[in-house]
């Protein structure tokens, strides 16, 4: 039986249609200058790929850092001001994390997509508040959640009258300080009638693996991204940075800007092949 394809409009393109949509950018807003330059550079990197669409991602606050001493970002008000500037100067759609009902309202006025972090995917009040904004809501599947249990999250958002939902897989806990990606999660969650995204960068994390910070295995990002596209995923989440070694968040797992073009060429071809197969 042919699977009913989920589609979700973002600006002038659709998630789950002919174009491969990728959410990408530095994990956290490091400064206004750094963020604007990163967005402009990514836009140029993505430009040659006609069937690959970029949604810029960066967070104003990383509230779930391993250590109290870790950099969290500029905060809600300043961070949203910077993201608004990104939208105005580049025309890109933007996604950012939220952590409370109040943040959901504020972020939805700036960003096309508001994102629920994996650790908060069961927080009903936050999920409902996000749904009520009318914005697209991207929910990261918790490392502790089975993919079939995410149906309850979708139903919470739908209860608000908002049917603009994306579910993102980012691996599952596998013992201590490790994650494993089960590609069965992609078709399982697609059965809920929503687009499914795969987070290829957080999936290679080693949570808390370096004591006060999380470790990671950046070399496996391309492997998992290609596997997810081959499994029929609707979009990808790939955090990236111009200088990963000095990134202020997730330095071990963000992808280097210089490595993106090669990967994008492979992913674009593979995605088109998979879409053709699904359409037959």
UniProtKB/TrEMBL annotation:
Belongs to the KdsA family. GO terms for cellular component: cytoplasm. Its main location: cytoplasm. The lineage of its organism: Bacteria, Pseudomonadati, Chlamydiota, Chlamydiia, Parachlamydiales. It catalyses: D-arabinose 5-phosphate + phosphoenolpyruvate + H2O = 3-deoxy-alpha-D-manno-2-octulosonate-8-phosphate + phosphate. Residues 12-272 form the DAHP synthetase I/KDSA domain. The keyword Transferase applies. This is 2-dehydro-3-deoxyphosphooctonate aldolase. It is an enzyme of class 2 (transferase). It is found in: Cytoplasm. Coiled coil: none annotated. InterPro entries: Aldolase_TIM, DAHP1/KDSA, KDO8P_synthase. Pathway: Bacterial outer membrane biogenesis; lipopolysaccharide biosynthesis; Carbohydrate biosynthesis; 3-deoxy-D-manno-octulosonate biosynthesis; 3-deoxy-D-manno-octulosonate from D-ribulose 5-phosphate: step 2/3. It comes from Parachlamydia acanthamoebae (strain UV7). Keywords: Cytoplasm, Lipopolysaccharide biosynthesis, Transferase. HAMAP family: KDO8P_synth. It comes from the Bacteria. GO terms for biological process: keto-3-deoxy-D-manno-octulosonic acid biosynthetic process. Its EC number is 2.5.1.55. One of its GO terms (molecular function) is 3-deoxy-8-phosphooctulonate synthase activity. It holds the Pfam family DAHP_synth_1.
